[in-house]
């Protein structure tokens, strides 16, 4: 890190700690991450963890929330870039198909959900991220004339979460298998396989 300013070094250390936290949460679970192991993984001095973050919990929380927010923002872009909500929902589902429920990203989300049952601050912040995404989905559905946009958005999001959880238990489960059902749910009428409405 030679040649860096103190500010740049600080940003670099924070980024390394956050990345190490995401890796370790996926590997050993939320409760298995210790400050010492985290510092070793990030390649920084033990004391720098609490210099940059008020607590280990705050670090784990930020690492998880940043990952979730980034992933959902990318998923929302698939929705807003689609010709209609049914196409967007299918694109989001197929994007989710890369996750098998046991990969690092899936495990990070699952651990985050579990931790949120005991951490009210994490739960509130996760809820805000989910509501933001659900609002984007509901708005897209409403703009297309869906008669129950808010309710459909809630069910679709729950289906995505369940899809990731179930893939870890059922390797045969895939996006294409359930896409027609979600297309129908996202449509304003009967949805054809090519996305046309009739």
From TrEMBL:
This is TetR/AcrR family transcriptional regulator. Signal peptide: none annotated. Keywords: DNA-binding, Transcription, Transcription regulation. Residues 11-71 form the HTH tetR-type domain. Pfam families: TetR_C_31 (PF17940), TetR_N (PF00440). Residues 34-53 bind DNA. PANTHER family: HTH-TYPE TRANSCRIPTIONAL REGULATOR BETI, HTH-TYPE TRANSCRIPTIONAL REGULATOR RUTR. PROSITE patterns: HTH_TETR_2. The keyword tRNA processing does not apply.
């Amino acid at each position: 890190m030679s040649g860096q300013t103190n500010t740049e070094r600080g940003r670099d250390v924070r980024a390394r700690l956050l990345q190490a936290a995401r890796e370790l949460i996926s590997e050993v679970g939320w409760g298995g991450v210790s400050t010492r192991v985290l510092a070793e993984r990030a390649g920084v001095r033990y004391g720098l963890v609490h210099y940059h973050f008020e607590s280990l919990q705050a670090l784990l929380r930020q690492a998880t929330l940043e990952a979730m927010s980034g992933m959902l923002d990318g998923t929302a872009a698939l929705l807003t870039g689609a010709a209609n909500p049914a196409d967007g929902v299918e694109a989001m589902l197929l994007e989710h198909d890369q996750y098998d429920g046991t990969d690092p990203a899936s495990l990070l989300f699952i651990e985050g959900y579990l931790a949120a049952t005991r951490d009210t601050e994490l739960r509130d912040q996760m809820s805000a991220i989910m509501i933001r995404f659900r609002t984007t989905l509901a708005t897209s559905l409403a703009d297309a004339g869906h008669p129950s946009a808010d309710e459909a958005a809630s069910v679709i999001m729950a289906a995505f979460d369940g899809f990731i959880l179930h893939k870890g238990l059922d390797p045969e489960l895939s996006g294409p298998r359930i896409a027609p059902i979600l297309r129908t749910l996202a449509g304003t009428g009967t949805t054809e396989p090519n996305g046309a409405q009739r």
